[in-house]
């Protein structure tokens, strides 16, 4: 959860090799560099990294423009459930003030040319967020999709008895 430009800067720094950041060079011996088989990995890796920070609080929302303006931040993802809790609507990310806050954030990010994402498991809400400027919308969660698929498969066989 990112709540300030300083926190976003720390994330960016953690993904960049010195002098641009603080990332340890031991990762050059990992899978990303094909176990040190990419000879220029240390000098080119920074260009292949995409940073998406997540805002899930009223404090983060209040700092949205500053966070989105951090050099190296490529996208901002809004987490509706935790944001709802932070805004006083625990368990209700569909509450009007939450949805309106998210739409405002998406419009702001879109206007600033920053990719903006959000999750919305309800089709109508997903469409609202797309209309507000969302660049990407998570419309299903892997664990939920897996659970529903398993339930449907099990139900197929329950009907046989």
Automatic annotation (TrEMBL):
SUPFAM superfamilies for this protein: Phosphoenolpyruvate/pyruvate domain
UniProt keywords, alphabetically: Lyase, Metal-binding
GO annotation, cellular component aspect: cytoplasm
Domain of life from the UniProt record: Bacteria
Gene Ontology terms for molecular function: aldehyde-lyase activity; metal ion binding
Range of residues in the leader sequence: none
Pfam families: HpcH_HpaI (PF03328)
Domain HpcH/HpaI aldolase/citrate lyase, residue spans: 1-147
Family of this protein: Belongs to the HpcH/HpaI aldolase family.
Entry-linked PANTHER family: 2-KETO-3-DEOXY-L-RHAMNONATE ALDOLASE, PHOSPHOENOLPYRUVATE CARBOXYLASE FAMILY PROTEIN
Protein name (database record): 2-dehydro-3-deoxyglucarate aldolase
């Amino acid at each position: 959860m990112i709540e300030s430009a300083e926190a976003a800067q720390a994330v960016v720094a953690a993904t960049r090799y010195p002098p641009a950041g603080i990332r340890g060079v031991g990762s050059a011996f990992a899978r990303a560099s094909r176990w040190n088989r990419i000879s220029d990995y240390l000098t080119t890796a920074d260009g292949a990294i995409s940073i998406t920070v997540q805002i899930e609080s009223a404090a983060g929302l209040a700092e949205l423009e500053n966070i989105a303006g951090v050099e190296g931040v490529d996208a901002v993802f809004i987490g509706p459930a935790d944001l709802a809790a932070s805004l006083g609507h625990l368990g209700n990310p569909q509450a009007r003030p939450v949805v309106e806050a998210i739409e405002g954030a998406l419009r702001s990010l879109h206007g600033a040319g920053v990719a903006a994402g959000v999750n919305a498991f309800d089709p109508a809400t997903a469409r609202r967020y797309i209309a507000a400027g969302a660049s990407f919308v998570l419309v299903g969660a892997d664990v939920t999709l897996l659970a529903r698929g398993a339930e449907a498969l099990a139900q197929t066989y329950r009907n046989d008895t």
